[in-house]
Amino acid sequence: MQESPETRPDSLRSPLHELHIEAGGKIVPFAGWRMPVQYTSIIEECKTVRSRVGLFDVSHMGEIEITGPDRFVEVDRIMTAKVTGKSNGVVQYALLLNDEGGIIDDILVYIRPGSILLVVNAANKDKDFAWISSRVRGDARVTDRSSEIAQIAVQGPRSRDVIRSVVGNRAAALDYYRSLEGKAAGHGAVISRTGYTGELGWEIYCGWDQSPAIWRALLEAGAEHDVRPIGLGARDSLRMEMAYCLYGNDIDENTSPVEAGLRWLVRAKKDDYIGKEPYLAAKREGPKRRLIGLRLGPREIPRPGYTILHGGEEVGTVTSGGFSPTCGTGIALGYVRADRADGDEDFSIAIRRRRADAEIVRGSFVPSSVKGGGEEMQ
Question: CA torsion, points 310, 314, 319, 322, in degrees to nearest 10?
Fold first, then answer.
């Protein structure tokens, strides 16, 4: 069964929009929304998250709920992770694959009492909802909750203290990729140990109309820890520093998890799921291209679309690139020919008609504190 998404007159504005304006946020179009790209500077905001704590409004993300007795088996069938047998409070990172094995979206999956909540990328929400609704069978209902749910991320080394003050000790003690049903500033919410920055962090899912009160409470509780609102510009830089893929840049429907280095998101012994056979074929054959990371000099700023060279030969293209405030250098993600991806030297990127030397980086560009002591993602 399918339930049509509700249309809100303010659907292109976050429920925190006026608070962003009051805080001096620079508002720009993003994935059909108007969102704050920065408040002070991207560099300063990145450093705030890496050293203290920042608040992100990510209410533009989509939330799709699946209910009904068949929800577990149906969610297992449409994505690459396995939820059957998982208990309430487990959070999974997973992929939706199309019939050709390409990536429709990368999503978070929340196991909740009586429902499974899929958190999808903002630009993909309508596409994902239509695709999921057309694939889910049996006694399972698919509902778009995006217009009802706001999302706030609290990220940084001091985030635990802020969460403890506003949500409580149980939430502050959550393991990585776990969630609970609780209250934030007195309002019902789902709180999880997740994030997109590589730092210790939490995300709060709450009612659309309750989010301003929770945002203010987080700012007030975090004042002693120098909490600051952070824009989407810094969020992009922070995720690049961790070599996290961004949908539309580094992965899309023409990208295989094998190429993108995301095989760890596909359960090897999982039963049937959409895209399984093409994925297994791509795995057997091996990729023709692979995603790699490259670090440049402090004045060399790569951008998406720039050419990657190896030994002077064109071998690939930058998909994400920019300046890393933490490294103090330019960094890039990009696809190169698979036969060159294991090389250690002679990489460069063509920037404004010249070649900028680049060093290959395997893994993240900066260390991660996200697991906070070695907890493993389930």
Answer: 60
